[in-house]
Design goal:
single chain, alpha/beta, Rossmann fold, seven-stranded mixed β-sheet, 45% helix
Length: 280
């Protein structure tokens, strides 16, 4: 991410979520705020049919971005039923869950780079989206401070369990930075805490998959946010167990397809992608 500039991949992800509301029926992720938060210009482009993220060709990426958010929200609903009342969004971008969650008694912590967070708050004001009383902003510049410090400043209660959603972030971080965050959750958070995150896996030998990965990597690098890390799922699962997570679950795209996209008439499908869910 470029210094002093809000994340452009955060805007991209938000436009994919907004496009999902318009072109995929029924939506996997129902988000009444998605079109508002992207801004009037981006919304107008979508509604006019001028946005590539709304095309059939972009369907697999649109599906994955919708599914990963839905999966994280479903996992938190399960955590909520067992008493978790702290929800932390790492790299919140333009995510809207904190503004549409209807669960009682939840404190929502949004963690992001200060530039991106200021930009988001401007977007919220422009869109007329109210900030609920339970939302806490934790600006963290990871080049100068640790996640633990930022969350302590925001008064996250480490003695109580928390749910962490970390979506669309890890491919842009070094393995060392990723390990630091996971080590914090595994070592400093209370038992019952969990984290859901997506990650880039090697594309394998399929020429189409390799070409798609290369094209996407080129696009994000041109925006100043290059791919940095990728992990084989089995090796990553072993690393997570080594860090001390008691439960480790890989949600591969085939299982996610069956759970969220089965028997759709519009043909929306995942082309790949996987999520990791781990609990302390």
């Amino acid at each position: 991410m470029l210094a002093g500039v809000p994340s452009r991949t955060a805007q991209d992800a938000a436009v994919y979520r907004a496009a999902h509301q318009l072109v995929d029926s029924p939506p996997v992720l129902v988000d009444a705020l998605a079109l508002k938060i992207i801004g009037e210009k981006a919304e107008g482009k979508l509604r006019a049919g001028l946005e590539r993220r709304a095309t059939a060709r972009a369907g697999s990426m649109r599906a994955f971005i919708a599914v990963r958010s839905r999966y994280a929200e479903d996992c938190f609903a399960t955590a909520y039923r067992r008493g978790v009342r702290q929800y932390v969004v790492l790299g919140a971008g333009l995510d809207t869950y904190a503004y549409r969650c209807t669960l009682d008694g939840v404190r929502m912590f949004e963690v992001d780079h200060p530039s991106t967070q200021d930009w988001k708050r401007e977007r919220l004001a422009q869109a007329g989206i109210a900030i609920p009383a339970g939302v806490v902003y934790a600006p963290v510049d990871f080049e100068h401070e640790a996640l633990r410090e930022g969350l302590a400043r925001a008064q996250l209660d480490l003695s109580r369990s928390a749910f962490f959603a970390w979506l669309g972030v890890t491919p842009y971080l070094t393995p060392e930075a990723i390990a630091s965050t996971l080590r914090f959750v595994a070592g400093d958070m209370a038992a019952g805490s969990e984290i859901v995150f997506d990650f880039a896996a090697p594309p394998g030998d399929d020429p189409r998959a390799r070409a798609a990965r290369a094209a996407f990597a080129a696009r994000v690098e041109a925006k100043g946010e290059p791919f940095v890390s990728e992990f084989a799922p089995s090796a990553l699962a072993g690393t997570l167990r080594g860090l001390g997570f008691a439960q480790v679950e890989v949600a591969r795209h085939v299982a996610l397809q069956a759970r969220y996209l089965a028997e759709r008439k519009d043909g929306l499908r995942l082309g790949g992608g996987q999520l990791m869910r781990v609990r302390v």
